[in-house]
Amino acid sequence: MAFGPLTGMKVVEYCDFISGPYCTKMLADLGAEVIKIERPEGDSARRRGPYLHDEPNPETSGLFLYTNTNKKGITLNLESPRARDIFKALVKEADVLVEDTLPGELKEMGLDYEELKELNPGLIMVSITPFGQNGPYSGYKAYYLNTYHASGAGYVLPAASPNADREPIKGGGYVGEYDIGVHTSVAVAGAYYHKLNTGEGQYIDISKQEAMMALERMNIVRYYMIGKSPSRVGVNRVRDTLVQCKDDGYVICVLYPQKQWDGIVRALGNPEWAMKAPFVEQKERDAHFEELKVKLREEAQKYNTMDLFFRIQKEGSACAPICSAEQVYNSPQTKARHFFKAISHPVAGSLEYPGLPYRFSAEEMKGKDDHGAPTLGQHNEEIYCNRLGYTKQEVVKLREAGII
Amino acid sequence: MTEMFKDALKGIRIADFSWVWAGPYATSLLSYLGAEVIKIESRGRVDQTRKGSIMNGDSFNGYDSSPTFNNANLNKQSVAIDITKPEGAELARKLVAKCDIVVANMRPGKMDKLGLGYKDLIKVKPDIIMMESSGFGSTGPYKGFAGFAPIFASFGGLAYLTGYEDGTPNVMSGVQDMRAGTASAFILITALINRKKTGKGTYIDISSSECLSDLVGPQLMDYTMNGRSPFRCGNQDDIMAPHNVYRAKGEDSWVSIAVGNDEEWTALKNAMGAPEWAEDPKYDDEFGRWQNRKELDQYMTEWTKERTSRETMEILQKAGVAAIPSFSAKEILDDPHTKARDLFQTIDTPALGQQVVMRPAWKLSETPARIRKAGPLLGADNHDVFENLLGMKKEEVDRLEEAQIAW
To answer: Shortest CA distance to B244 belongs to which of A157, A168, A151?
Structure first.
């Protein structure tokens, strides 16, 4: 377990894939004790890549390793009544339970909030589901693609499309699922702070759709400002543009407000076209955005990506190269900030992981002593014997009986 | 009425020097949980969103007529302080002395220059929690560089991964500010937890680009593990197929469908009326479906384009297949599910009449997150805050306003 500001916070996770596990990873990375309960077959993230050296192994999935650092892992099969008693015993000692079963599923097993709070009145129980606990879609099925598009976030992508001939897309990788984890972590931290002050627990209903809609809160109500739904077609985005440089790399330039534009013009050496109409005033630039893009793209072809980036930033305007994983990793900024850190794992060995986005002056805030994600059932003995008082032989029997 | 509610962050006061969206959204989230947020602005340094937005340009008349500003600053109070003047900076420090948290998102170093850096503020409030949020972080060779939302996505690695496989990278939109803001809110509450346990505050430097990098962690690990940079792939999944957004009946209308196993594939085939093409054995297993996904998508479209996205959703969900429209804003606002979940709220604003905004998206049973009031008019709370919180006399506040210190 890592040590940090959340040391002392006890969390039980019964979640799969990304959103729930990422929420508890955020807590674990700052010192919370997270006991991850996996079904005997393991978290489904274990069965997805990227795998170390492309060798599929449930213990070396980069997806699983990244999303489950600093946790303890046990296996438990809630199909069995005895396993449910074990589940209760774990939850009894916890501050927080994060679970992501479909609405009604835990109630059938007698493990819903009403039951659990009898055992542990101070419990903070968090349920993460695709559409929340009530409403007409609460029983609907959704994979990460579906929740992304359910939020309205996909309908506006790719932004600045020339027309609506092609389909809306999701954000890259599993970004939406990670967002849901971050969103949930705020509510959990708030509820835990409240608990520290008052001793009171509570129930938190998280809908994945809503967690992602929260990020689109401006775009959704823009409907009322512009009288139609924002879409991925050009007119909704005229304030930044992508240019391709001599070496084929891309740079994104921000063209608004005026101060940004002025910096770009200076960075490009005050080209003649930029000094006269229709490119001097913001309103005129908006009206001639297509021409403006062509002009900027011509200018960009004179520079290499990093050269253009530094030129524009030197003039005080915002821009950035579009970075691949390799470029993120190798950037001097990333290196100087020690963003990646090496964490060791019993099977995957020592690998470099993206670290935390925050730095602190206070020693107490820093997460320390990181360790890798748990192997499947790695902490069964520690939790079942040391915490719950089973003997080692009993743990063997529990396993033979398919309970753990 | 208000006594009915308990607030998770009751009694926490925030001095908010931040602007645009990333900082203001962080403090909004804390205000939904009950924190009191005092926004520090001035006519000499107006929050950009009071004037316009990156989406719509300078489209608002006057500083109090921006729905965007209102939406990003619900629940907050506003004091106008010109912090570039020494007397203004002094006033701001007095205010900070009464606060628990300070949030700023100017370029790193700017607050120090104004006498409002962490080293200045711990003198007036030793356990202050101060966060500075910036595009690249406040250390390293790019520390002073300018960053807006599209920059975070680009530098953080998300933009490269977003787009059609034959298309350009995509920076998305202001949503990146919200992402950085959400991570900021989490670490601020964690700092409150730490303060409660240790009595100590902290300085927090948060890099918005790193916030974005963390959301594509597995893709970054593909590089650290295998030396490979994953590429854009539209809606495609590593193994699932069908897994795409398909054209539906109606203008620019679309539905997302994802099939995760053989059982769902069979259910999908049956729901589509067991078309002959779908019986081809090459589609019988997940690998075969994935290999032939492009052809599969074409067949699927033949079926989806004949019905509305909602019809497809209903037919397929009934069959146990994950299908949801790619909702537009209007569809979300009109949707029976979002209505049942009570996700939108109409609030009265002093300058804009009624505005519809989305409620906080956590449903907490004991400390409900909520919107209590509209975003503030510029400087609307000068008298309240300076007199009631700082104990100044009305005449003194009038003088500060006249001297354009409180302006």
So the answer is: A168
